[in-house]
Write a sequence for this structure.
């Protein structure tokens, strides 16, 4: 015969007392956790409410209405007279008329450019004259300047010719 797994062995009076203590500690911890959870939720809800009230107060704050500006009065010569504004505005208003010399007085002097545009041949010649023989390699997406390295296996470049060109007749 097998024993029923739900049957608990009989406890001694000390075991029963200890089980009661454990149960009471567990129930106390459960109530404390529930109280903390409720306190945290209430605090977050209060904080959210305070933020909403503060945002509403800032957004609905009454802004002072701007003082209307007086309209310009025309003088006897048909030109508007200067406006006299209240000192509270603290701004100065001045009538500006067309001035033909304004462009001359505010023009910015442009320094001449030192850049020189060279084609591929002129660039290779300039590099060769500087002692840096190089060739220009063009691909659809970039331009590369490649140095030409002369070795003993290559014949010297022809005088006055393209330093990157190979001789027309094969050697050796």
């Amino acid at each position: 015969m097998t024993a029923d797994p739900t049957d608990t062995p009989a406890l001694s009076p000390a075991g029963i007392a200890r089980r009661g203590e454990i149960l009471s500690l567990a129930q106390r911890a459960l109530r404390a956790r529930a109280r903390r959870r409720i306190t945290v939720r209430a605090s977050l809800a209060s904080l959210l409410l305070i933020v909403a009230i503060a945002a509403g107060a800032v957004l609905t704050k009454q802004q002072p209405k701007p003082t209307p500006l007086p309209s310009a009065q025309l003088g006897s010569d048909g030109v508007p007279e200067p406006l006299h504004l209240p000192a509270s505005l603290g701004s100065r208003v001045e009538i500006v008329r067309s001035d033909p010399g304004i462009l001359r007085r505010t023009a910015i002097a442009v320094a001449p450019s030192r850049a020189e545009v060279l084609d591929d041949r002129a660039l290779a010649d300039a590099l060769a004259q500087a002692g840096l023989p190089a060739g220009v390699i063009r691909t659809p997406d970039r331009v590369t300047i490649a140095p030409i390295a002369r070795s003993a296996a290559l014949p010297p470049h022809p005088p006055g010719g393209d330093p990157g060109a190979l001789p027309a007749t094969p050697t050796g």
The longest strand covers residues 134-139. Helices lie at 13-59, 102-106, 120-129. The beta strands are 134-139, 142-147. The chain has three helices and two strands.
